[in-house]
Amino acid sequence: MKKLLTQINSPADIKNLDIAELNALCAEIRELIIQTVAQTGGHLAPSLGVVEMTVALHYVYNTPIDKIVWDVGHQTYAHKIITGRRHRFHTLRQPGGISGFPKREESPYDTFNVGHSSTSISAATGMVEAMHLQGEANRVVAVIGDGALNSGIALEALNWFGSRPRNLNIVLNDNEMSISPNVGALSSYLNRIMTGQHTLTARAGIKRVLSSIPHFGEGMVKLGKSLEVSVKNIVMPGSFFEDLGYTYVGPLDGHRLDNLIKNFENIREMPGPVLVHVITQKGKGYKPSEKMPHKFHGVGAFDLATGASKTVSKLPSYSKVFGDTLTEIAREDQRVVAITAAMTDGTGLEGFAREFPRRFFDVGIAEQHAVTFAGALSLSGFRPIVAIYSSFLQRSYDQILHDVCLQNLPVVFALDRGGFVGDDGATHHGVFDFSYLRTIPNIIISAPKDGNELRDLLYTAINAGAPMSIRYPRGTAEGVTPRKPQRLAIGKGEVLLQGKDLTIFAIGATVYPALGVAQKLAEEGIAVSVINCRFVKPLDARLIKEWAGSTKRIITVEENSIVGGLGSAIAELLMDAGITDLRLKRLAIPDSFHHQASQDELKATAGIDATAMLSAARELLGIAK
Ligand SMILES: Cc1ncc(C[n+]2csc(CCOP(=O)(O)OP(=O)(O)O)c2C)c(N)n1
Fold first, then answer.
1. What's residue 236's pLDDT?
2. Beta strands 383-389 and 412-416, pairing class
3. Ligand 1, closest atom to CA 343?
4. What letter would DSSP give residue 428?
5. 272 and 165 Cβ atoms separated by less than 8 Å
6. What whole-number distance in Å separates Cα of residue 181 and Cα of residue 30?
7. Does pLDDT of 2 surpass 80?
8. Does ligand 1 have an atom closer than 6 angstroms to the CB of 282?
9. All residues at 6 or more sequence positions from 547 whose CB lies less than 8 Å from its CB, including other chains
């Protein structure tokens, strides 16, 4: 059969296809997604689950004039393929290629940039109100997953808009999964709707029986109305949403195109806010991802035949070192409890969760709640470890400040994915945490240079008696030896090399490259000191003043924004101490957003890798390259 997909260059091209052709098109889209992601890596399972829904939405709605607003945006591969990016789809997540998430700069069909969860309803309401103010009558559709719906911002928008007299279509993509199985009462509620569809008929039945009773009937229907109110919550699917002001439609089978199209056509014309509940299977159409949707939520390159990952490393990931160490410490320290915001596997906590189910809390995609909850747990003597990716913790700024640091509560923030993350791009790089945490009083901010130091810092943090953050990068950890974690002195740096000509103050992932640079310069007869700062706050003021004052040429290097991180802190310290007769070069990530590329490429472009350190050193020393 002739390939249909080759003829699809925009959503207009699908509107003339019949249902059989649309189904065939969905199969071709799935094949392209699977083959491409096997090469590039990416969010396979979420995208495979919504192929029919995506085709149906573009078939019915007049995009891009009608706007589809995606949530997280990790499920938009089919959307990208049918909105003119089929030819470039092989560049998915590659440097200069198309993004793994919706991006307005990339296409007029991408209506709102996204990557973090739970923004779609809020963003969609903004578009609806703007259209209203401008006298336009086009439609806005917010697509949101059952996991994303748990989050504060999603519920805030849902609540607010339920009382607005405007049109909005919300498509709830319910696959019962966040990355792992979804948690929380809302999730159980959705599950009850799914499994209790027969109750709809029960409600209709009650009415029919009551009205058929002669004389009595009419009154009874009235009585039945109030009866209905009370039974409604038991038998009516979607009554929660109805009570919030939404017309609830569903649950619909998310893989039945004909049915989806018919329903979307009706819904598009309905007045007011409407919520359509669509049931999908995460990972549909590829056996390995159907079997293990959580493993295929986000994957690296894999073998098509078996689904096995192509990236194998002998070294453990930082996430694993963190999770294993926490489990080890928790065996002896009953105070330790762990909290994740829907990222058990990503943060390396699966072992802890298995061994200590009572001391493990997955709060769903609710980073704000995770932090305040941790603060309160600590009041009773527990030592909560909140494991959240650096970029997602941005959500919890006020909770860190107001609910933890203001009360000086002993909460440990384990910030995974600190630094560049690579192909997920700008929304996911964790390059601001030193800066955003440093302004908050009481918090101790640290980053390990390797696996052992992560173990030591974690042990130190659990016993610190104050809020403390530890940030570590995506990827593998060198230097993990079988020894007990040790307590480190808070706010003390580590002198790794002593040299009189220049000092490099490094932290975290920049420490080993700094040592490499020092060794290279040593071969040229230049003596470089390398200080592992370990802490951004409190700084080791004595050590910094001593080495900066004696070598007079200093480089600071960090995988964090140039604004407000380690370099800023050291510059401020020296300036305030009146030590100004020196030359300082701050190597840090430029003050802009950085897109997808490999972590090494990003570090090179940002000017924080060994090459950049070497040329900064040569410049300070006044020697030719
Ligand atoms: C603020 C924030 N926290 C965590 C994540 C990581 N994350 C990406 S997708 C996802 C699960 C989303 O579940 P759901 O909305 O049900 O969509 P599905 O993947 O099941 O299609 C999570 C936790 C994120 N992107 N943003």
1. 73
2. parallel
3. 23
4. T
5. yes
6. 23
7. no
8. yes
9. 495, 503, 505, 529, 531, 554
Condensed to tens digits (0 to 9), the pLDDT of residues 527-540 reads 999 999 999 999 99
Q: Cα of 573 to ligand 1 centre, how many Å?
A: 40
* Of 70, 170, 179, best ligand 1 pocket probe by most atoms within 8 Å of the beta carbon: 179
Query: Does the beta carbon of 362 lie inside 6 Å of ligand 1?
Result: no
Q: Where are the domains of the chain?
A: 5-197+237-291, 318-471, 494-621
What is the DSSP secondary-structure string of 438-449?
A: HTSTT-EEE--S
How far apart CA 202 and CA 193 sit, in angstroms, is 14
Q: Which of 282, 417, 438, 603 is catalytic?
A: 282
Burial class (CB in 10 A: 0-12, 13-18, 19+), 508: buried
Q: Answer yes or no: 474 catalytic.
A: no
Q: Which CATH class is domain 5-197+237-291?
A: alpha beta
Q: Is the pLDDT of residue 513 over 60?
A: yes
Kindly indicate the confidence band of residue 211, based on its pLDDT and cuts at 50, 70 and 90: low
Contacts of 140 (CB under 8 A, 6+ apart): 66, 67, 69, 124, 127, 128, 131, 167, 168, 169
Pick the CATH number of 494-621 from 2.60.120.200, 3.30.365.10, 3.40.50.920, 3.40.50.2300: 3.40.50.920
For the segment 170-186, what is each residue's pLDDT rounded down to a tens digit?
Answer: 999 999 988 888 899 99
Q: 368 CA to middle of ligand 1, Å? A: 15
| pTM score | 0.93
3-class SS of residue 584:
strand
Multiple choice CATH, 318-471, 3.40.50.150, 3.30.457.10, 3.40.50.10860, 3.40.50.970? 3.40.50.970
